[in-house]
Amino acid sequence: MEHKLGVYICTGCGIGDAIDIEAVAKIATDDVKAALCKNHECLCSEEGHAFVQADIDGEGLDVVALAACSMREKQAELTWGDTWVERINYREQLAWCHEPNDEDTQWLAEDYIRMLGARLGVTSKPVPHIEEMSDRVLVVGGGITGMNAALFAAKAGKEVVIVEKEDALGGFLKRVHKRFPVLPPYEELEDNDIASTVEAVADHDKITVYLSSTIGKIDGAPGNFDVTVDGAGASEKVGSIVMAAGFTPYDASKLTHLGYGEVKDVVTSVELEDMASEGKLVRPSDEGDLDTVVFIQCAGSRDADHLPYCSTTCCSVSLKQTQYIADANDEAKTYVLYKDMRTPGQWETFYQQVQKQGTIFVKSEIKSVVAGDDGGAVVTIEDVLLGEDVEIECDLVVLAVGQVPACKSEQLLKLGYRQGPELPSMDAKLEVKSDDDEEAEVVDRKDEVTGGFPNSHFICFPYETRRTGIYAAGPVRQPMDIASAVDDAAGAAFKAIKSVALMSEGKSVHPRVGDMSWPDFALQRCTQCKRCTEECPFGALDEDEKGTPKPNPTRCRRCGICMGACPERIVGFADYSVQSINSMIKGIYVAEEWEEKPAVLCLVCENDAYPALDMAGTARMKYSPFVRFVTMRCLGGLNLQWIADAMAKGFDGVLLLGCKAGDDYQCHFIQGSELAQTRLSKVQETLDRLMLESERVAFHEIEIDNFGAVPGIIDDFMEKLEALGPNPFKD
Amino acid sequence: MSQSKATLVVGGGMSGISTALELSELGRPVILVEKSPFIGGKVATFNKYFPKLCPPTCGLEINYKRLRKAANLSLHTQAQVTKVDGGPGDYTVTIEVAPRYVNHKCTACGECAEACGSERDDDFNQGMAKTKAIYLAGHMAYPHRYVLDKEACDEADLPKIKDACKYGAVDLDETPQTLTEQVGAIVWATGWESYDVSKVDYLGKGELPDVITNLQMERLADPSGPTGGKILRPSDGKEVESVAFVQCAGSRDINHLPYCSGICCLASLKQICYVREAAPNAKVYMFHIDVRAGKYEEFYAKIQADEAVEIIKGKVASIFPEGEGLRLQVENIESGESLKVDLDMIVLATGIVPNTADLPFEATMDDYGFLMLGDAPGIIPAGCVRRPADVATVVQDATGAAMRTLTQE
To answer: Are A615 and B140 a contacting pair at CB < 8 A?
Structure first.
């Protein structure tokens, strides 16, 4: 693309002392054809800013390239309205980590200018994708989470549609007698005020409620979802979705080892709520008094054969229920048999209160639950302290059952997405297609469910789902109590509103929030290999019947994984593409063999590896000056063509620095780093064809805090290359 | 709804940063106020998160990147809100800003610190190291601008520091400032401090050098911490061969913190991983009342399966010096045995105390100092001022707080 480029070299912070500015300027104006190249002793000062502004106004520059500090520094100072600003890292990744006034450092500085020029030749400023959008919010589920999400969104001025499968709002709380205390002094049970929430929803004129209804289908993309509501037979247009379908209690019929279904006087914690609500706190077998009640914690929870996880609320629920028993019969004895009593935060106070009131707590293993001779039950526990079995005769056994997310067994969203109808669960893996794969079979997804909790994998970003504009909230996302569900509803409603607000301006959501670029597909060259539609971590691409991708720009997170997936190299962003990186590689000067200077391309992830390199520079750590860094949005965008081109051009090696992959991945784009490594496993073919050693291409996972290791990784790689000798493709 | 007026977010830790960014990216003006010279709060000092064992700086980097782009967000560090007048939709707040002595011209080149001979205790490293009197808190410090601790600086160093800066960034004459701002909503996210272990007699009163807190352990294990990530005994630098984690160090104790801080069990389980990695031959103990691993059962199970780790139910009775190391006394509640364990180092899992003393507004609070929604009309508490919580929960809550600023009547 044609640009009127101004290059500015900051000579501050040691840059001016490290390189020959005049020589760099010559490259900028002669080779790169910049309209001008100037230097300033401190570009980030007011004077520096005015210095550049004068040229923008006077010369009509449309691109300003600053060879100065890292792009992670001084962004506010180094901004000129809407002018396109490029940053070249001459400080942290050049002057601070390489020998000053050395020909190799100088060569690096000049290469970075050439690389920028080459890139600008094939890129342009992104034009945002803007379409007409709905800012209405669909809430799936009319329980406490869904109703609160709806109320929050409605109070913020948005129209809301609630779809509830039952014939009344209220969800699980309809069955709850009282709530355990969440307000100080945390000693008294609280009334279940769900009716007032139901009323508030019913009264709100911005909220439409469909009862006895489920989602028939959701087509489209964020900003323009078309929702078919089965039951009510309605169609709705919405912009974003809060999935708040709640949980079902663990199926106690699987807990026969705890007497359920075998012993009449064994009930679940949920059934005890019903009994308390009905005022029928008696033995189910004969309506006798409840003189002794045993609560069994983790009934099917923290148990590899049932629910491997802890539902976090059951301890407090049982504590609450001991009060039901005490309220009905103040002479009653209650036992709580537990693995660990888990009453975090202020819930501990209520635990202490219940202990004081005489409930007996025993850490124990349950050996058996059998019917008593005279009704009731006998619970046998192993008492570790006494080293023997103890029998407890009781009138009732209450099994504290855990929470199972509603998405485990039923489809909730029925999205018309090529990658499946539901939110992926935390452990759901992407498919990676290899060259050897046969034509992909048509996957029957019509019965596919989420499986586990569709929670975020990211601790810092708990609302990250792999489907843009769709946010899970409440116990469907992870086990939680009522108060947490209300908080979660607030957060998810916010995210739903914000996602459409950003998209309506053509902006990306997390993690490249505000990015206005979007991937363009040159579909006339598409071979329908389906790699992009399978590998997009966010399900952004659908397919037509032939397998041609159908992009949905508002689902896209701008990671560029699709452009790495495409063997035909037809995918690109205005400012970031296979061609733009190719051109940078071509822009690098590769020394001829007699010069005995290696050339190494290093592709770095901008999220973790790039800052790690900056911090290594700030710590003034030194490493080889022969490495050229090319920054990527995510290494998942890796296209093997770059490696082939670099090798054919005479580069001695290619080093890739990406985020941690695997189960505890740190890649901000889910599996970008893993995809890069998978793709790389096929680079051998390319190297074999060129008769080059496989050690010439290496991948390292970099954790941002371990920046101190980066110089060593680079230097080790350089040593290996030295041992291999120069790439024979050099001139 | 308070549309056009800014929202004041008090506290620049994980909660405050998250609320501020969420609102700002929605197009709402935000004023973010942090009392220390750098944001990031406690999280910035952590080595890794449980259960993923990933570095918090990874998410902070994303958040700082968002902050750099947030044109409608103004950040005041070394600032405290001292007065709140008015009510929902229309507050007048007074913010006192302490001098940094380093202005916006700072390029973080580090020449000033080179020139400075004076040192100060490094609070970022929990007092286990020194920094120059002009310093950045850690490699990821945000804002990336030096701060001068004038009290810790020798008079003679001041002109040297000033002269070392080529950019005129050192301003020794800076004075405290008082700002008055009109805001529509307030989010209170001032976070927490660790319970003061010097109050706990039976756990060594904070006087034994090899008895450290869980916050200190974070810095010891950090590759850029005072020991470069090696877990060394503070008294003599010996690599640890035995370490005990003492849970509920002052927590679930009516004489100290009656509540449970909810995160300390997981923090210790995480720190057990640090020890197992840095000192693979070390024997590790964890003494607890209950192991409250909440939603991360799988993580707990993995550590339970490690034969080098003994997890024992028992409340520690005493800790005292023994030879060059320490001795710990505890009763194993499950076996009834009374145990004496000799150790190189003990890590106290201290709890969370909300930073809610001296609030500039009227608020009812629970007996422990946690703020409830509605305790101060119109002021929205977020994060650990509401209840002890892990990072994911805190960010979730902070996002909810952003929502609540929009719906506040």
So the answer is: yes
Examine residue B143 and say whether the peptide bond preceding it is cis (omega within 30 degrees of 0): yes
What confidence tens digit (pLDDT) does each residue in B347-400 have?
999 999 999 999 999 999 999 999 999 999 889 999 999 999 999 999 999 999
In whole angstroms, give the CA distance from residue A410 to residue A422. 10
A182, A306, A346, A613, best to mutate vs chain B, most B CBs in 10 Å = A346
* CATH architecture for the domain at A520-572: 2-Layer Sandwich (3.30)
Inter-chain contact A484–B1, Cβ cutoff 8 Å? no
Same fold, A137-248+405-503 and A251-401: yes
Percent of chain B residues past pLDDT 90, beyond the cut: 96
Does the domain at B6-98+176-191+355-407 match CATH 3.40.50.10860? Answer given as no
Give the residue extent of every domain in chain B. Answer: 6-98+176-191+355-407, 111-164, 196-351
B109 touches chain A (CB under 8 A): yes
Q: Is B406 on the interface with A (CB under 8 A)?
A: yes
Q: How many residues in chain A?
A: 731
By Cβ distance, the residue of A478, A501, A664 closest to B27 is: A501
| Amino acid letter, A451 | G
CB-CB neighbors (< 8 A) of A706 in chain B = 55, 223
CATH superfamily of A1-125: Lumazine/riboflavin synthase (3.40.50.960)
Nearest-by-Cβ selection for A459 from B49, B110, B397: B49
Residues with Cβ within 8 Å of residue A482, at least 6 apart in sequence: A144, A173, A179, A182
Instruction: Over range B250-270, report the average pLDDT.
Output: 97
Q: Any CB–CB contact under 8 A between B114 and chain A?
A: no
B358: Cβ contacts below 8 Å, ≥ 6 apart = none
End-to-end CA distance of chain A: 30
CB atoms within 10 A of CB A434: 10
Enumerate the residues of chain A whose CB falls inside 8 A of the CB of residue B25.
498, 502, 513-514
Domain ranges of chain A: 1-125, 137-248+405-503, 251-401, 520-572
Q: How far is B321 from chain A (nearest CA, A)?
A: 30
| H or E segment and range at residue A329 | none
pLDDT tens across A38-82, in order?
999 999 999 999 999 999 999 999 999 999 999 999 999 999 999
Q: How many C-alpha atoms does A181 have within 13 Å on its Cβ side?
A: 20
Same fold for the pair B6-98+176-191+355-407 and B196-351: yes
For A425: left if phi > 0, alpha if psi spans -120 to 50, otherwise beta; the answer is: beta
Specify which residues A214 forms β-bridges with: A230
The domain made up of A251-401 is a member of CATH 3.50.50.60? yes
- CATH T-level fold of A137-248+405-503: FAD/NAD(P)-binding domain (3.50.50)
B315: contact with A, CB 8 A cutoff: no
- Kindly report the backbone phi and psi dihedral angles of residue B197, in degrees, each rounded to the nearest multiple of 5, phi listed first: -70, -15
Going by DSSP bridges, is the β-strand pair A190-191/A178-179 parallel, antiparallel, or unpaired? antiparallel
Q: Which of B279, B336, B295 is nearest to B312 (CA)?
A: B336
In chain A, which residues have their Cβ closer than 8 Å to the Cβ of B370?
346
Burial group, residue B218, by CB count within 10 angstroms (0-12, 13-18, 19+): buried
| Region at B147 (left for phi over 0; alpha for psi -120 to 50; beta for the rest) | beta
pLDDT above 70: residue A431: no
- Asked if B188 contacts B381 with a C-beta cutoff of 8 angstroms, the reply is yes
The answer for B 116-175 residues in CB contact with A (under 8 A) is 139-140, 144, 166-167
> Closest to A13 (Cβ–Cβ): which among B27, B109, B295?
B109
Homologous superfamily, domain B196-351 = FAD/NAD(P)-binding domain (3.50.50.60)
Q: How far apart are CA A48 and CA A54, in angstroms?
A: 10
